[in-house]
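Appendix B. Raw example, untouched.
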Amino acid sequence: MEYLTVEQARNLPGLRLVLTRGVPGPWSEAAKAIFTLRNVDYVAVQQLAGDDNPELVEWTRHRNAPVALYEKEAPRVRWLELLDLAERLGSGPSLAPEDRDNRVFMVGLINEIAGEGGMAWNARGLMFHAGIIAQGAGAAENPMYRDYRYDAGEVEANTAKIQAFLDYLADHVKAQQGQGSHFLVGSQLTAADVYWAYFSNMLELLPPQQCPVPDGLRDVWAVLAKSIAGYDPVLIEQRDKIFADHLLLPLDF
């Protein structure tokens, strides 16, 4: 993927989408897919993982990705803000169900996957913990750990929350299949399918030909699967079908 620097992008018109460069960060990958599926053009702006990103902070007041900046509107950083923007600007099939009950369920489900305190938030804490064990206590001085509120005392609780969610999601996928649907919500592709497709990489990365990352990063992302008791393969089967039918491969980051 081609990226612009903050300096190159900040005065451009239209949508500028700040994304983590060089790694398949699930928040960034899901945001890219949401805008692509909604036929919204954007220019990609680089954010460097683990870096202070001072130019980005000066522009957006945010250090992390994704950040969506549309014309002169305020920066958008939360997953629901990005989805709302894609729905407003885009065209074609909506990624939000028309049925109110399904729409409410979709929002709650994505928040359990990608929101603060959700599966990915807790998984990131496990990855930080593994990094400290491997590198020594000094690694905890990394400001990123502080910004994400890493707490070694919460590792056991984080693991239990992830396990409970994965068990719940597997049961839900099977219930959907029993209704004749391979989608997570109703009988159509929604943002929930998109978010699970990319965030499931934290559980089991796509194969190298579809997700070309260094072996070292694969080792880091393997921490989650090694930390829990296990997970139902139906979770990955559902993910793979969504990629095969609706999303672009290989990942380009």
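End of appendix B.
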